[in-house]
Amino acid sequence: MKSRITGLGKASHFGPTLIVTSLSFFFAELYWPTGSALIIALSFFSGQLIVGWSNDLVDYPDDLSHQRMNKPLVGGLITRKYLQRWLAVMVPISIVLNLFGPLGFVGGGLSLFAIGWALAYNFYFKFNFLSPLPFAVAFAILPSCMAYSKDKTPPVWMILGGAFLGIAAHFINVIKDMDQDHASGIKGLPQRCGKKGSIIVAATFIVLAIAQLLIAIPLQLEQ
Hints:
This protein is mainly α.
């Protein structure tokens, strides 16, 4: 049982999942009391589980061909059927948490829209030059849906900052497996840019995100 729980955790890409969940709680607290912010964070957590688990299922043949034993499906911690069952359970839970939780149909709908973009990356965008697009859209929506759930328009810096950091995260995440991706014929934009190019692109978008935040937040405080 312990190995299965560990396997589910690894298949969720626990590090990125924890980061996104923590960020969602931070942004939720800008608009909601702590109790509601925790439920919102839980709804984002459920979405990240769906994205991570589906990613491991899609990548299983490629992971197996490269003998990535750190992957729980390849390492034998869990089976595909076991992961598929949990994925089937988590999808309706995530829908309920997003649409019927504090975010409501507007904010929750946007959150599910972001999950949809992340799933589209797993199944389609990962393999072509538009691979950064789902990251830009999903990370821009993450903070924005909190504002929309309160009938407020999110500031431009919040949307752009999320999009820039999402693109940077995509390029950084791909670097470690780039050689194997080339061997598998995966041709997302980072793979086309190469390792050095991806580092430059990621650094550029991080700088852009920080720069626009440093400019926008003081202006926001003056208002």
